[in-house]
Design goal:
2 copies of one chain form a homodimer.
Chain A lengths: L6 E2 L13 H15 L6 H12 L4 E2 H11 L5 H13 L3 E4 L7 E4 L6 E5 L5 E4 L2 H14 L2 E12 L1 H6 L1
Parallel strand pairs in A: 1-6, 5-7
Antiparallel strand pairs in A: 2-4, 3-4, 5-6
Helix pairs in contact in A: 1-2, 2-3, 2-4, 3-4
The first copy, chain A, binds a DNA duplex (25 and 25 nucleotides) through helix 2 and helix 4.
DNA sequence: TTCCCTGCAAAAGTTTTGCACTACT
DNA sequence: AGTAGTGCAAAACTTTTGCAGGGAA
């Protein structure tokens, strides 16, 4: 059992610019990637992927398991984890380790973003800032290293909690 | 068993500005904080704290256990974890979760810093950049949130590995 | 028909806890 | 003496793996 998570849609690109049915696009991509790899599309995989794409982001394996159980009570934890790994291989999912014991998973292939996490209510807000990205590159250069990826998490109080508290 | 770690001392403040015997200072602080809390200074606690302060940073519980065993083979895992938690309570240790299953621990109370992690050799380099800190504050302000802390990890190739690879 | 996939259960890895015993202060 | 600390073993929790049976291509 982990900290509860609330989701805020933050700084999403305007709806018109996004494809109308992300869900279907993603399922198609999933099928294509599986075919490429000679893997099979099966009931449990469909269910898990569908729930994962449908649900809000930053879900834990435990939460995903519970959700999938609702529509397919037959599915076991092993299949959840195996499908999560498969989705990751297919570059449709990325795994995050926030300050908790368990991993959280989110849809990948979107534009890069970082996270703000409210320490009071647990809300996770995604954001992206060009300036920060550039400055990180500059710092890396100064250190003489090559950057492949990064992880930035800001922790604090969201506007709502600050007002309340 | 986890990924091996190499340590690079990076951008440390000049030696003259640091107290000569950090180790003793830290042990004294540890004793003081324990006294404040009505807790006892004991053999195992001494050994664990000493090894922790002596050793390089970003150690895992497993590694610490192995090191402590060398000087006190009697100590168990439970005491390692309990003492790690105690050191954290005493604000002498901070716990990090990089992209691995297990936690890593480092000496706290130093100036704030972020981490670069080489994806090839596992080397961890600490760094600090004022500009980045300021820009994070600016981004937080733009989002209407209050920042309490943050975590920035850069992943990539260190100079050495890039040259080799 | 051939592998791949599945669920179950057991294992593995990390961290925590219960308990009887020990040892600081 | 009294209370907190210790080691051991067992439990808890998350994730992985072995295996025998079932199903997609």
């Amino acid at each position: 059992m982990a900290r509860e998570e609330t989701i805020a849609a933050a700084e999403q690109p305007p709806a018109e610019r996004r494809p109308r049915n992300k869900m279907q696009d993603r399922m198609e991509t999933f099928h294509a990637r599986m075919r490429e790899r000679g893997l099979k599309s099966t009931g449990p995989r469909e269910d898990i992927a569908r729930v994962f794409f449908e649900l809000h982001r930053h879900i834990s394996a435990e939460e995903l398991y519970a959700e999938v159980k609702k529509i397919n009570p037959h599915v076991g934890y092993a299949t959840i984890y195996r499908t999560l790994k498969l989705l990751k291989d297919c570059e449709l999912l990325s795994e995050r380790h926030f300050d908790e014991g368990q991993a959280r998973y989110e849809v990948a292939g979107e534009q890069h973003h970082d996270h703000f996490i409210c320490e009071k209510c647990g809300k996770i807000v995604e954001f992206e800032d060009e300036g920060l990205e550039r400055m990180q590159q500059a710092v890396a250069q100064k250190m003489g290293v090559t950057l492949q990826r990064h992880k930035l998490e800001l922790y604090g109080l969201c506007g709502e909690c600050r007002r309340k508290g």
